[in-house]
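sorry for the late reply, my laptop died twice this morning and i had to redo everyting from scratch. anyway the thing you sent over, i finally got around to it. pasting the sequence first so we're on the same page, its 321 residues, then the predicted structure underneath. double check i copied it right bc i was rushing
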Amino acid sequence: MRKGGIFAALSHAKLPGDSMGADQTNVLARLDQLQLLVVTGKGGVGKSTVTAALGAHLANRGRKVLLIEVDPRENLHQLLDTPPSGGEIVEAASNLWLQHLDPRELLDDLVREKLKVGALVRKVLASPVHLHFTEGAPGLKQTAVFGRALRMVEGHGPKELRRPDVVILDAPASGHGIAWMAAPQLVSEVISSGPIGKMAAEIAAFLADRERFGSIVVTTAEEMPVQEVLELLEAMRTRLDRGPELVVVNSVYPPAPKPRTRDDGATRLWIRRRQVNEAELARLVAGFDGPIAEIPLEPIDAGPVLVGVVGEHLTDAFEDR
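ok and here's the structure:
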């Protein structure tokens, strides 16, 4: 692996407009101050790779980073070449840890924490009422995940990682991204008392704090992913009154060479894909005046090598300029 170890990939930052900071330095300073960062994007755009890369980039800058994922497939350990988390905190590199969380298990843990009496805990956990409530209550599982992240940044983590400087959540696809970020406020409005209501209110206040919480949206320069991102950005503006810190455009085709012959179909396809990318990038720029970073398409399978190459691009983009 090239210099930089396990790292993400943002090829060159392209910053349209004047909002949210005018240059890459401001974006990096913004990421350095946050305690909780949500990464979301349409399925298949490389969201988990960008999550791993951003985590490694911040870890290399000296921050203690915990990556959290909730996808049952557990993608992060494969990208970082570690054993599966299985709910435990796993060290991936210096200053970098990962953990897989099951939202339902977090809700059960909350019951154990509050009730304490073994027989009563078992009775509640076996109750159909508890099962239906935890499965059906809107926003409850998302709130539980954010609750665990908040406990970590406040210094209540296990001995393996007592207090990370930043927790990065590899959130579900962008179609659910706004639901995740809005969930604690929803729960706090519906459940106004008791331990769940108190927890939801604390989390909602934390997510509203622009000095501590932020988000990154990942996409590719294709029609459907860009459309989904534009819809997510509008939803964030109307429901959360804020935008992401950065939009990362992954797997952008590099400029194509001229066709070598009249029958050079491969190069012509390359040219066409590049034209599609340019058109969708223009549409994204027109709909978002914050920082946009492009990641070039790399002919590398998903895994530590790809994360490392992308990470070097990220380092070059944010530290060499």
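Residues 12-319 form a domain with the Rossmann fold fold (CATH 3.40.50.300).
thats about all i looked at so far, will dig more tmrw
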